[in-house]
Write a structure and sequence with these properties.
The complex is a heterodimer. By secondary structure, chain A is an all-alpha fold. Helix content of chain A is 67%, strand content 0%. Among the domains of chain A are: 49 residues, no CATH class; 35 residues, no CATH class. Chain A contains 10 helices and no strands. In chain A, 7% of the residues are buried. Chain B is mainly α. Chain B has 9 helices and no strands. The longest helix of chain B has 23 residues. The termini of chain B are far apart. The chains are: A mainly alpha, B mainly alpha.
Amino acid sequence: MTWTCDQIEARLSDYLDGLLTGAEVSEFDLHVKGCAECAPLVASVKNLVGEMRSMEPVEAPPRLVYAILDQTLGPREKVTGWQAIRNFLRGLATPKFAYGAASVMATCFIVLSASGLSLRKPKLADLRPTTVYRNVDRQAHLAYARSVKYVSDLRVVYEIQSRLRQDENQLQAAPEEHSPNGTTEKKPGQGDDQTHTQPKQQNRADQLARQVELLAAECPLVLERSVR
Amino acid sequence: MRRHTRRVYNVCYRFVGNRTEAEDISQEVFLRVYRTLVSYRSAHGGFATWMTSVTRNLLIDHYRRTKRDRLTDSLDDAMPVVESKESSARRPDEQALLGELSGQVQSALTRLSPELREAVILRDLQQLEYAEIQQVLGVPEGTVKSRINRGRIELARILQQMGVRPS
């Protein structure tokens, strides 16, 4: 059904606001394309709406805010001297400034401790650029060395743990067997005396070594991976 | 506070077209809001919507007050939609401040009837949603849409009569 000019005018805003269905939009466009009155109307209203949407808001005069405050809260009393300073400081006691102040203090503390400036016995010589540079350099190297040591310690512990875990897995894989002789092959340099007391970990390590050697006696392939 | 001041001032200025009057009405709005804050209930909609509603009511009151003071002629009765007399004889500096087309749109706005004027201001200048405008004006959504539509069309026709062609 072809739309009339009245219908176009009545639904113009819906068309501009995108509230028409697809079919309605087609009918609308069809009429407007062929109508000498509706076409300029739609174009001018469309341009006008676009223009109004892009108009900048008008700036309120600054005095308006103060006038409103005066009328609602009452005129501000003039304060001088300590009262003014106290009011100013109270205004600063907001979370925003507190965070800022705290972070500035933390930065100062870090810088001071890095620069090696002693707070107990401050010396003017500490403020010399070469001294400061030397202190900072030393701190940086110390920190680096500590972190390197920490990482390598972690690595050693990890290697030991993985080795022990490996040994346990091997032992569990193969059943424990005792040799009929009851003695192990003698390693060069090892005496017959094996009764002396040893620390617990060493006992355990030796026990593992003996068991692996037992397996090695039976299986030549295992010999390759025996634990010393 | 500044955000609300700016918004209220914009609505007032766009409605009356005069900076001094807009300032006075904005102050009245805040005074009214300050005094009746205890009666504000969130069921009335958001705070901003309530403030816009107070602004709109005061603007209509102002319009009715000043209409009695304005000279009327038979032309007004015959054409209720277009205002032949308006209070916004704009000063040249204000025109320059607004920008030419913007100033002409402002001039044309003050020639709309108040119902259409407020609908167009709230929709196209303040970019409020239909539901919000409905709450502010206290009329059904169909009426809101109809006023916005008629307002836009009339505004385009007034601009055409003024010889302005929005690009």
